[in-house]
């Protein structure tokens, strides 16, 4: 993972770690005699530990901070995780090696241990290297556990018990290499193959007990060593305060400077600097180990503990106040189907969560009718929930990469299906597949970022309800529903929610499809109509447009919206010439009950139905139905079509036009 992070993350990590350490240690050793005179010989000799401790950052603390702020999947969050990973690993190896060597040498005149010396330092160094190699050597055994687990089945309990036994044994061996017992446990945790079946099973067994029971007790025990009521020498406070502030100031300036050199915004550079300066529970507990190892005095422990509290608070509050990842999705540019130039390429981001979504998404893409004059560019995003690891990953399969855990490949069906789709529509459709592994509450950032980066006109999302063949509800997924709601609110382009109530048959099996578009008026309906018109260009599909109008002549209407509606409808009314496979029907509606009856009547007459979401738009045709809406994300008409009371086998696409941000 470290070597795949990229040059930017490596540059930021190395400079933000090494430059403060070099400057801080140079100053400490240059003024060492003066500092010992001011703060005492023991405290003065341990000031380099303070420099090293504040120069690095803890990857688990940073991942927790980004998760709490809900920016784990943002572009800046990914960069921070990459840089933090490199910094943490390098700092851990350097600190562990330094602790091994320094604890084997006589560092002051009060140390009279006859065994200490260069010979012991060399022996301890070899023990440290052997300890790391032994820990890394456990990985093949864990991969063997994964290979022996049948696909889709949980890992055998014996294997999880063996992994925990390895962790305990490595912890004890680490003590012979002059490391804490937790060092061995940590290294074993790092070499466990992430994700299912092994990584996710270990988390399932250990997370609740470890996080909510053992961790609070452990932190409390560490906090009991900190006595903030005792008197601390003012000179020590001033010296340590200057060192801590200087180290973090240098680190922040270096980080901001590199970010500016990389053409990143100033606020992003400042946020990244705050993230790399964040301290938390891991740093706090590390201070307890340093104190127990006589690498920090009690007074230094108190000052360092308070600094961890202050820095952690500043980082969290500062990043939350400055950084808003959703601002990049602001819709100042028009990215929708309505504003596409004639015969231009339609760019689509299509999302897949489960195997059942693959067929319905392909069906929807075939409905878009890719032709040489109306080409289709599709970016298929396979979304997998992050389990068994801390950092999210995003993979482009155009680069011949694969997502795997052992011999499993969770995106293989998606890749094969849409590669075949591209082959079937060679020259008219181009497909790129991606896999995003991230927490479900942050998946919307992956979707919106891909749509923004690829200049997509519409995002197609699968609905969270799955139906059986007889029309009853089979299952629901609230995580998908919450994700769809977030995308609707933040998407940089138009959004379509695909409701699949029937079989997802290919257009090769059904060469002529009956497509319906229900039009009431408004921006969402205009967007849906433009998409519907693309389904019949150079294709044998039949499109029928139902224009539902109010029979109440006194109803208040927006003249501008009415004019735009009439302009868009001209294409299906035959103003520009008769189109054989398009039928326009104007339907007068007196009250909402007629709307319900009409929807029930036509629902089973078509294979595919396109409607607008019309969120927040009031009309006499749907006014009384809004309070009965079960799925607000589908709008009133979409909710009626998706209701279990409506008998239909049609797929339904509910379209919301890109939400434009008001210009200040």
From TrEMBL:
InterPro entries: Cation/H_exchanger_TM, CHX17_2nd, CHX17_C, CPA2_transporter, Na+/solute_symporter_sf. Its main location: membrane. The keyword Transcription regulation does not apply. This is Cation/H+ exchanger domain-containing protein. The keyword Membrane applies. The chain crosses the membrane at residues 12-32, 79-105, 117-137, 158-176, 238-258, 270-290, 302-323. It comes from Clitoria ternatea. Residues 2-322 form the Cation/H+ exchanger transmembrane domain. Residues 376-503 form the Cation/H(+) antiporter central domain. Belongs to the monovalent cation:proton antiporter 2 (CPA2) transporter (TC 2.A.37) family. CHX (TC 2.A.37.4) subfamily. One of its GO terms (biological process) is potassium ion transport. Keywords: Ion transport, Membrane, Potassium, Potassium transport, Transmembrane, Transmembrane helix, Transport. Residues 515-658 form the Cation/H(+) antiporter C-terminal domain. GO terms for cellular component: endomembrane system; membrane. It is found in: Membrane. One of its GO terms (molecular function) is antiporter activity. It comes from the Eukaryota. Gene3D superfamilies: 1.20.1530.20. Signal peptide: none annotated.
């Amino acid at each position: 993972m470290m070597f795949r992070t990229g040059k930017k993350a490596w540059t930021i990590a190395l400079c933000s770690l090494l430059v403060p350490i070099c400057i801080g240690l140079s100053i400490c050793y240059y003024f060492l005699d003066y500092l010992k005179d001011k703060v005492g010989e023991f405290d003065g000799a341990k000031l380099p530990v303070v420099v090293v401790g504040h120069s690095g950052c803890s990857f688990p603390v940073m991942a927790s901070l980004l998760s709490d702020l809900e920016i784990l999947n943002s572009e800046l969050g990914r960069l921070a995780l990459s840089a933090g990973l490199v910094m943490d690993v390098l700092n851990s190896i350097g600190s562990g090696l330094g602790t091994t060597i320094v604890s084997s040498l006589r560092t002051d005149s009060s140390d009279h241990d006859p065994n200490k010396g260069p010979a012991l330092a060399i022996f301890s160094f070899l023990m440290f290297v052997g300890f790391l190699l032994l820990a890394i050597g456990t990985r093949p055994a864990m991969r063997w556990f994964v290979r022996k687990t049948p696909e889709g089945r949980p890992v055998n309990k014996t294997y999880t018990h063996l992994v925990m036994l390895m962790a305990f044994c490595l912890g004890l061996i680490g003590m012979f290499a002059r490391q804490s017992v937790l060092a061995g446990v940590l290294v074993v945790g790092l070499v466990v193959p992430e994700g299912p079946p092994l990584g996710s099973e270990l988390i399932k067994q250990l997370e609740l007990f470890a996080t909510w029971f053992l961790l609070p007790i452990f932190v409390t025990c560490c906090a009991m060593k900190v006595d903030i009521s005792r008197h601390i020498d003012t000179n020590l406070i001033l010296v340590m305060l200057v060192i801590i502030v200087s180290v973090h100031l240098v680190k922040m300036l270096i980080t901001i400077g590199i970010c500016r050199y990389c053409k990143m915004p100033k606020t992003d550079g400042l946020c990244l600097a705050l993230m790399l300066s964040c301290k938390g529970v891991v740093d706090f507990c590390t201070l307890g180990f340093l104190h127990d190892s006589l690498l920090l005095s009690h007074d230094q422990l108190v000052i360092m503990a308070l600094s961890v509290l202050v820095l952690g608070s500043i980082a969290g509050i500062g990043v939350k106040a400055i950084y808003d990842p959703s601002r990049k999705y602001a819709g100042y540019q028009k990215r929708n189907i309505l504003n596409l130039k004639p015969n231009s390429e339609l760019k689509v981001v299509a999302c897949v969560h489960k195997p059942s979504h693959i067929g319905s998404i392909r069906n929807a893409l075939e409905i878009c009718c890719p032709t040489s004059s109306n080409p289709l560019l599709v970016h298929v995003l396979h979304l997998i929930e992050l389990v068994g690891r801390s950092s999210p990953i995003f993979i482009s399969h155009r680069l011949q990469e694969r997502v795997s855990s052992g011999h499993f490949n969770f995106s293989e069906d998606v890749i094969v299906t849409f590669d075949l789709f591209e082959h079937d529509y060679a020259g008219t459709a181009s497909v790129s597949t991606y896999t995003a592994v991230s927490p479900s509450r942050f998946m919307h950032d992956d979707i919106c970022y891909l749509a923004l980066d690829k200049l997509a006109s519409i995002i197609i999302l699968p609905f969270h309800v799955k139906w059986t063949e007889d029309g009853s509800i089979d299952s629901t997924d609230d995580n998908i529903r919450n994700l769809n709601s977030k995308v609707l609110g933040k998407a940089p382009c138009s959004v379509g929610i695909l409701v699949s109530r029937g079989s997802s048959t290919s257009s090769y099996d059904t060469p002529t499809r009956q497509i319906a578009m229900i039009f009431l008026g408004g921006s969402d309906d205009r967007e849906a109509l433009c998409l519907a018109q693309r389904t019949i260009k150079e294709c044998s599909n039949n499109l029928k447009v139902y224009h539902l109008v109010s029979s109440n002549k006194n109803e208040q209407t927006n003249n501008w919206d009415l004019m735009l509606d009439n302009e868009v409808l001209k294409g299906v009314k035959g103003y520009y010439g008769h189109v054989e496979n398009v039928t326009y029907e104007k339907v007068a509606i007196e009250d909402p009950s007629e709307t319900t009856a009409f929807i029930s009547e036509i629902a089973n007459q078509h294979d595919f139905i396109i409607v607008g979401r019309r969120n927040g738009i009031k009309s006499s045709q749907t006014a009384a139905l809004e309070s009965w809406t079960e799925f607000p994300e589908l709008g009133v008409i979409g909710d009626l079509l998706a209701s279990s009371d409506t008998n239909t086998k049609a797929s339904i696409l509910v379209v919301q036009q890109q939400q434009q941000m008001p210009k200040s």
